[in-house]
Amino acid sequence: MEFIGRVLDGSYAWDLGDLLRRGDDEIRIPQDEKVRHLQKVDILADCTKKQLKAVAAISRVIEVPAGTTLTRAGEAGEEFFFILDGAASVDVTRRKRVKLGPGEFFGEMSLLDGEPRSATVRAESDMRLLVILRRNFQTLLSEVPELTRTILVVLSRRLRDLERALNA
Description:
Layout: H1 2-9, H2 16-21, H3 31-38, H4 49-57, E1 60-64, E2 69-71, E3 79-85, E4 88-91, E5 97-100, E6 105-106, H5 108-113, E7 120-123, E8 127-133, H6 134-143, H7 145-167
Antiparallel strand pairs: 1-8, 2-7, 3-6, 3-8, 4-5, 4-7
Helix pairs in contact: 3-4, 6-7
């Protein structure tokens, strides 16, 4: 009984990796609702409805308790997270902390490069998340090459905007 209480109050470490590997805890939501959320993700902004449906098909909705560490700075990035419900805190530096809530997302660059995380993100409250695993996304990019082209155009535009801002 003590173990269950510790899991529920967040004093026992929740294994996010284990949760993502298992499929039995997945929360079902309509595909159209997933597409609606994915349209808000900047790297997917120019995707067609068909492309977004393909991305939605590989996404899962999970619930995590408050206190769950979703990402750790310096660790490889293997997932993208879109917040459906709840709040998270992002430790960008020792002195800078940012709050994220419903409709916000993080880890989108990890879908593409798998590089180490630049921040630690923890669930501040119980959360419901739309999650895409990098390995599934990479497979999708191979199967749907036009999706790769669409994302490259968006990334190129972001890079040009950044260059303009730096030169201004």
